[in-house]
Write a structure and sequence with these properties.
With about 220 residues, the protein is α+β, with helices and mostly antiparallel strands. It has 7 helices and 11 strands.
């Protein structure tokens, strides 16, 4: 566009103003967190899901952990297909700045570990107080203990549906994912957090076979 910018990839970005910018065409990159959320939804339900128009390199840490959890993954050009196992295997994760495991996937992936075989340890290295969602999962039967930046999740065979409350965007999405495998009905309140970051979330899940609707 004609901008004068120096320092990409360093700690200092230097911008020199110009009189005019020119028109360009630009394709916005696919949402890596939305893609990761749907992959986890497929994994936790033992389902089969294919996502097109995806930037694979941006979610490589998530893909690696899903494979470690016994998911079968087939990668094509700009597409990924996942087959979830009958039961996930517990894995450990540590959130890190890009290109590490994204903090915005911590709660969603952590939810999948509540029904995995074994014990998972999650270390949140980016944000504090990001385990609020775990208290709601505990109400659904999850076995989770938290201390500081660490959460220990002991997998259980089944979650129980309950009325839970979203306290943030990703934690709210995590509760919806938990509801997909919980026995009975799960009602998630304060969904305005979720709708802020996922477009037509319930419609997309419905197309995948979920029994979900918004009141």
């Amino acid at each position: 566009m004609g901008a004068k910018i120096k320092g990409a990839g360093t700690n200092i970005i230097e911008i020199t103003g110009v009189k005019n910018l020119k028109d360009v065409d630009y394709n916005i990159m696919p949402d890596r967190i939305e893609a990761g959320t749907f992959l986890v939804a497929g994994a936790i339900t033992g389902g089969n899901i294919k996502i097109n128009n995806i930037s694979l390199s941006y979610i490589e840490p998530v893909i690696n952990k899903l494979e470690e959890a016994n998911c079968k993954i087939k990668i094509e050009k700009n597409a990924i297909e996942l087959q979830g196992p009958k039961r996930l295997k517990a894995v450990d994760i540590k959130t890190m700045p890009y290109p590490g495991f994204p903090t915005d996937m911590q709660s969603v992936f952590g939810t999948s570990m509540t029904v995995a075989k074994g014990t998972s340890i999650i270390v949140e290295n980016i944000f504090e107080n990001r385990y609020k969602y775990t208290q709601e999962l505990i109400r659904m039967g999850a076995k989770i203990t938290t201390e500081g930046r660490t959460a220990i999740i002991k997998g259980t065979k089944r979650l129980q549906g309950a009325t839970v409350k979203a306290s943030d965007l990703r934690g709210g999405a995590a509760l919806v994912i938990a509801g997909l495998v919980a026995h009975g009905v799960t009602e998630v309140e304060e969904i305005h957090y979720i709708l802020r970051g996922y477009e037509k979330f319930e419609q997309k899940l419905s197309k995948l076979g979920a029994k979900i609707y918004v009141k």
